[in-house]
Design a protein that fits this description.
54% of the residues lie in helices and 0% in strands. By secondary structure, the chain is mostly helical.
Length: 205
């Protein structure tokens, strides 16, 4: 974060752009799971206590605008409020975990903004899907975003159950992959149908 290196990386540098953020989110979610287990069977120091510094730093990394250099290159100033489902889902996850583990309101304004704007955008989309990056729609990430929004309700005191029920429209009927009847890896965000992955997509492998 101090080096500002993230702002100089290309959109094709997956290890340098995405991995630090979702690695931090995985850490926060794992710490929440450890804390829940500790509360059921207290022994020694609670995870939210011994890991407090790491919890704060992980959340700070994910929510640092400087770490969003690659998504800003895709979406510019509107990167927080248009498409960009994967990154916005990570913000929601990190801010929710931080609040649950620490009781801090530090990231609540960002959390509230992202929960409300992302749920509204998914809800008004034609197929219930958004892109992660231009011309790249991964339904699995949309599922994760919906789950993250539902999980944030407990922190924000909101109820997105109606939204969550309606969001299932993106994962039924012709929008499931043939043979598996599971959400496809890659889809056309305009109609929700499974789609062959673009050969020239540079952001994921």
């Amino acid at each position: 974060m101090r080096s500002g290196r993230a702002e100089t990386l290309s959109t094709a540098d997956i290890a340098g752009t995405e991995w630090p953020l979702f690695g931090s989110v995985f850490y926060l979610l794992a710490t929440e799971a450890l804390q829940k287990d500790w509360e059921a069977h207290p022994a020694g120091v609670a995870p939210k206590v011994y890991a407090r510094e790491a919890i704060d730093v992980a959340a700070a990394l994910v929510t640092d605008p400087g770490q969003a250099g690659w998504v800003k290159k895709h979406y510019g100033a509107k990167y927080l409020h248009e498409q960009d489902c994967f990154y916005r889902m990570l913000l929601i996850c990190a801010a929710t975990s931080h609040a649950r583990l620490t009781g801090s309101s530090e990231h609540l304004a960002l959390l509230r903004d992202q929960v409300e704007t992302l749920s509204a955008e998914i809800d008004r989309s034609s197929a219930g899907l958004l892109e992660d990056y231009p011309d790249e729609c991964y339904p699995g990430d949309v599922v994760s975003a919906i789950a993250a929004i539902k999980r944030a309700d407990a922190v924000l005191g909101r109820d997105h159950s109606v939204f969550c029920s309606r969001a299932l429209r993106a994962f039924s009927g012709e929008r499931l992959a043939r043979g598996t009847q599971l959400p496809p890896y890659f889809a056309d965000s305009s109609n929700g149908h499974p789609s062959a992955r673009r050969a020239d997509a540079a952001t994921r492998t």
